[in-house]
Structure formats: structure tokens, C-alpha cells
Amino acid sequence: MSARISEFIDLWGVDIWEAIIETFQMVGISLLISVLIGLPLGVLLVLTRPEKALENKFFFRLLNAVINVIRSIPFIILLFFILPFTKMIAGTTIGVKGVIVPLVVFTAPYIARLMESALLEVDRGVVEAYEAMGVKTRHIIWHVLVRESRSSIVLGLTIATIGLIGATAMAGLVGAGGLGDLAYRYGHLRYEVDVMYVTVFLLIVLVQGLQSFGNVLSARLKKD
Amino acid sequence: MIRLENITKTYKSGGTVTKAVDDVSIQVEKGSIYGVIGYSGAGKSTLVRMVNLLERPTDGKVFINDIELTSLSTGKLQKTRQRIGMIFQSFNLLKTGTVYQNIAIPLKLTGVPKKEIEARVDKYLEIVGLSDKHEAYPSELSGGQKQRVAIARALAHEPEVLLCDEATSALDPDTTESILTLLEQINRDFGITILLITHEMHVVQKICHEVAVMENGKVIEQGRVVDIFSKPETTTSKRFVQSLFQDELPKSLVSRLKERGQIVNLSFIGESSGSPALALVSKKFDVYPSILAGNITQLKDQPFGRLVVHLDGEAEETARAVAFLEENGVVVEGYVQEVEAHVG
């Protein structure tokens, strides 16, 4: 048994390790950028709705529509659909660099929605109390809205991250590698069943770990 | 000082226009406690929220110390709001912050120097009696304690005015009592002008100098608390006063007694006013007073007593007895059997 394991590691260890790194790169970078875009969009979705601080019907409807349109497109189609845009932004359409743009386009609107629902949970009264104390709106956004919903934000980001890991599996189609790609190319196309099992197992561990971490962190941030 | 001039607030929803507040003018003198009382839906909450422009009046002007809030730019309004404290029925604390953070964060965000923040938090937590709760989270506190934190948070900005939006409505009677005592103490020690709204006459009775009664968006009666207590003009005011005295008489008794003589409400204001007068009535006139119900209570500054008395005698004699009582500082009003039910 141990001989088989060491044989497997000799044969596939480097590939799997590289795939893990690629997956982490893709997820890490695109998650970071998606949060930087999605969180402000979520805040805008909350603040521009009717009877909120920055009420703006036109902007609110437009943003809503754009997010819905993007979210309607499956990632595998989005990946090819926005190739020219990807080329324009990243300069390339292949490799890890080439897949970050579609991953962000895919994830940022999703995060915006998750942030929106998290921020909407915040008690209107607390926001009002801060308005009544003469605190500036931008401070209220950070110190009340985001702070009070941080537990839900963490849960939302956990969901988004797991979705992102799923999306990276398709990154192989543009040569970006990653665990999903490894499982597909070797496990499926070349019938190396062991590789498929191991990558699937690794993905399960990764997702389980992430979800547990998200749950624990969220619970710790929650004080009520 | 707070001055509201002809404040109106209308809401449009669908095709209907609702007047939540209808042409209300109120003046709250510096250092006084002013109560606005009304049943739910009377518009009192909208009214208090218009004082710091949490809701903008559709029409009318709001002045705080002669600054017209309604004409200020957003930036100036924010600056002015820092001088207006507000507490709420639902406390509105940060759930994710400790007691210390709940008071310190708004101070930081409104530009209070770091060194001073700590001193202020300590000072005001001491005043509200929660010095040992710096690190507690709101979820670990009782309702009364949460309201104390909210009061400390408001006071820490050292405001000139404190607005209370049903601040005691979510609290049990004992806690209500202690919060009212605290508000009274704040008013006395710091000279902070307080405008509070409530649906409990008890709150008005205990701490207010002046009161306005609201109904359907309008102020239907306003004046010194003692005047409203002794001579409520409107049905709603009468009901509020009655809610404290519980001196409704059985119908059968009233109709029987009314056959001979009349039933009157006597209000005694202050320590000594008129107290022997009732006893003298039977000596001086051919009238036998019998007390049907009675109560004495403490208004903010003075005791206030109310008796329901049957004056048994001929009409002429009882009229003279009433005149005599009034001469002696007793407020006399005809007894009204049943103040008609509020339709709300």
C-alpha cells in the first residue's frame, strides 16, 4: 500500500502540487479583486435603493439589471463570451493571468448580491442613531453597516469562495491549470482514475475546510 | 432651546396623501423637560424625528438655539446634530461593539481627540451607573442597562438637547422608573433640555414641566403639566389623566347619585392648597360631601390630588359650595361619566 502511495506521489506529486498552487493563485487573486469590486457594489445596492441615504432610482435599477445579466451567464460561456474584454484588460486570454478577468466578472456581481443581503440585515435604527449623532455617511458605511454585518459578510464570502473554486475548474479550458483541470485532463481524458480520486478528495478537503473556517469565524464575529 | 414653527409632514404612498404631522408649533425652553404624549399613530414619533431632521418636514422650520436646522447644508447639519443627543425605544447600539466601543466609536467619528474619548467614556458610564461594564456586549445587558449605555453614548457628545423617542416604552415599570430618574438627574445636573415623546401619562407626570397632547398629527392641547392634569380640555387629554387615577365610577352609582346633588372632580395642586376647604363645605353650606374616589400623586414639582366627590344638596347650595371651593384654590370640574373611547 505504502509502496503504491509513494509511487503515486513520485509520478503525480509535482503536477498535483502545481495544480494546488494554481488553484490558490486563481482563487486568491480573483477573490481579492472581486471583494474590492463587489463590496462597494453591494453597499451601493443598499444605499441607492428607495428611501436610503443615496437614493437613486436610475442607478439602482441599472446596477440591478447589469448584475442580473452577468449572473445569468454560466461561467463556461462567460469565459469565451468576454474574450475581447479579457484581452483588453489583461493583455492575454490564456494562463492564470487570462482567467482572472472572467473569474472576477463572474464573482464580483455574486459578491455584490451576497453583500447586499448581508448589509440589508443591519438594523435601520442603528444607522439612524449614527445619523442623529452627526456621523458622516461614509463613516456609517464602514463603522456601522459593514461592521454590524461582518458575520454575514464572512459567511457570504465563504460561499463566494467555494463558488469560485468551482469556477476555476473550467479555467483549464484556457490553459490556466488548477485542480479541476488536472482531474479533467488526466482523470477523465487519460483515464488516470487515481488522479481523479485524489484531486476530488483534495477539493473536498479544501471546501470542507473553508466552510468550517467560515462558520467558526462568522460565529466568533457575531456578538448577539 | 427647541422651536418648531408650523411643522407639517406629509407622506405620499400610491395615490393617497397622509398628513403625519399637521402644522405643529412647539417651543421648549432651555433646561426644561417637555413631553409630547399621544396614542400610537398620533404623529409624535415623526414629530421628534423632525427635530434633528431624521425626517425632513414637508413644511415649516426647526430651530435649535436660534440656528435654523431646516436651512443648513448637509455638512453643517451634521455638525449641529453632534449637539443634539437622541435615544430610542430600541436602544440602537452596535451589537458587535462592547459598551466602551459603543460610546467611543461615535466620539472618534465626530472628531473628539483620542485622549479625551477615554475620559469621557469613563465619566458618562459612571453617571449612568455602568462603570463595571466597559467590556460587556449589548447582548449581555438587560434592557435598562442598554438604555443606560445609549444615554451615556448621547451624553458623551455633551449635547445641549436630548431627544427621547419612546425611550422607556420597551422597559418594565421598575426600569422605566430608574431611567426616568436618570433623565431627571441629567436635566438637573447638566441643564440639558429634554424633549420626550411617550404614550404613558406616567412619564409626563413624573418628569415633565410642560406637555403637548397630540392627536391625528395635531397638537390639541399644550401647557404646564399641572394645568393639563387639573383642567384637561380635550377628551384625549382627559383619558390620559384618567389613565393615572383610575377613578371611573360604576354607572349605576352615578345615575343614582345624580338624582340628588352633583358629582364633581376636585383637583388639589400643591402641598396645602384647599385641603381644609372640603371639610368646611359641610359646615358652611347645606351640602354633604362624600368622597367617592380619590388619589394623590407626585407631579414633577408638586403633589397633585384628585377627588371625585358627591355633593349632596339643593342645586343652589351645591353651586355655592363649588364657588367656595374654587375660591380656595381647588379646581372643580363636573364629573364626566365615561370619557368616550379613543378610536385609533
TrEMBL record, chain A:
Q: Tell me, which GO biological process terms does this entry list? A: D-methionine transmembrane transport
Sequence intervals crossing the membrane? 24-47, 59-83, 89-112, 153-175, 195-217
Q: ABC transmembrane type-1 domain: from which residue to which, for each copy? A: 20-212
Membrane association type = Multi-pass membrane protein
Database matches in InterPro entries: AA_ABC_Transporter_Permease, MetI-like, MetI-like_sf
Domain of life (superkingdom)? Bacteria
Answer whether the UniProt record assigns the keyword Ribosomal protein to this protein.
no
Q: What is its main location?
A: membrane
Q: Which Pfam families match?
A: BPD_transp_1
GO CC, any one term:
plasma membrane
Q: Which PROSITE patterns does the protein's record reference?
A: ABC_TM1 (PS50928)
Kindly list any coiled-coil regions of this protein. none
Q: Where in the cell is it found?
A: Cell membrane
Is Metal-binding set as a keyword in this record?
no
What are the UniProt keywords, alphabetically? Cell membrane, Membrane, Transmembrane, Transmembrane helix, Transport
Family stated for the protein in its record: Belongs to the binding-protein-dependent transport system permease family. CysTW subfamily.
Q: What protein name applies here?
A: Metal ABC transporter permease
UniProtKB/TrEMBL annotation, chain B:
Task: Spell out the coiled coil positions from the record.
Answer: none
Q: Name one GO molecular function term.
A: ATP binding
Query: One Pfam family from the UniProt entry?
Result: ABC_tran
InterPro entries referenced in this protein's UniProt entry, alphabetically: AAA+_ATPase, ABC_transporter-like_ATP-bd, ABC_transporter-like_CS, ACT-like_dom_sf, MetN_ABC, MetN_ABC_transporter-like, NIL_domain, P-loop_NTPase
Which UniProt key words apply to this protein? Amino-acid transport, ATP-binding, Cell membrane, Membrane, Nucleotide-binding, Translocase, Transport
Q: Which GO terms describe its cellular component?
A: plasma membrane
- Name the Gene Ontology biological process terms: amino acid transport
User: Which family is this protein grouped under?
Assistant: Belongs to the ABC transporter superfamily.
> What is the protein name given in its UniProt record?
Methionine ABC transporter ATP-binding protein
Q: Which organism is it from?
A: Guptibacillus hwajinpoensis
